């Protein structure tokens, strides 16, 4: 399974914002702190703003804040905001892919994997990551 750079960066941005809620943070500051390319970060933050996960303020006192409490922002929401579908097969949702026999049940496999991944990521919030309190069982 591959986690995109967009998802990785988006989660890191939101954890950074959750760690310092006293003031807005600039993209420049976040990019330096998290070692993320600035231009790429701007595009990711734009997607997070459109999804309602961050809010912004312009001007010399401007920057970005979380739009909601960190405990209410799940990792599944973040993935959806920056990457769209949780799991696709060559760009298509798993239920729309048809396999010839005897591999016909593979669409069920991919659909189940997507559901489990979404459930897992829905149960982890930005606040959980910030606190290091992940209830991950092997």
UniProtKB/TrEMBL annotation:
Keyword Lipoprotein in annotation: no
SUPFAM superfamilies for the chain: Winged helix' DNA-binding domain (SSF46785)
UniProt entry tagged with the keyword Iron: no
PROSITE patterns in alphabetical order: HTH_RRF2_1, HTH_RRF2_2
Keyword terms of this UniProt record: DNA-binding
InterPro entries, alphabetized: TR_Rrf2-type_CS (IPR030489), Tscrpt_reg_Rrf2 (IPR000944), WH-like_DNA-bd_sf (IPR036388), WH_DNA-bd_sf (IPR036390)
PANTHER family in alphabetical order: HTH-TYPE TRANSCRIPTIONAL REGULATOR ISCR (PTHR33221:SF5), WINGED HELIX-TURN-HELIX TRANSCRIPTIONAL REGULATOR, RRF2 FAMILY (PTHR33221)
Name assigned to this protein: Rrf2 family transcriptional regulator
């Amino acid at each position: 399974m591959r986690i995109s750079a967009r998802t990785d960066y988006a989660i890191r941005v939101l954890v950074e914002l959750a760690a310092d809620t006293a003031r807005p943070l600039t993209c420049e500051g976040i990019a330096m702190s998290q070692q993320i390319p600035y231009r790429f970060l701007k595009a990711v933050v734009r997607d997070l703003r459109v999804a309602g996960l961050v809010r912004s303020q312009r001007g010399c006192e401007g920057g970005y804040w979380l739009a909601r409490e960190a405990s209410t922002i799940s990792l599944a929401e973040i993935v959806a905001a920056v990457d769209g579908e949780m799991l696709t097969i060559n760009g298509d949702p798993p239920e729309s892919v048809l396999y010839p026999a005897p591999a016909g049940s593979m669409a069920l496999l991919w659909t189940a994997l997507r559901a489990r991944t979404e459930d897992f990521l829905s149960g982890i919030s930005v606040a959980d990551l910030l606190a290091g309190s992940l209830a991950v069982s092997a």
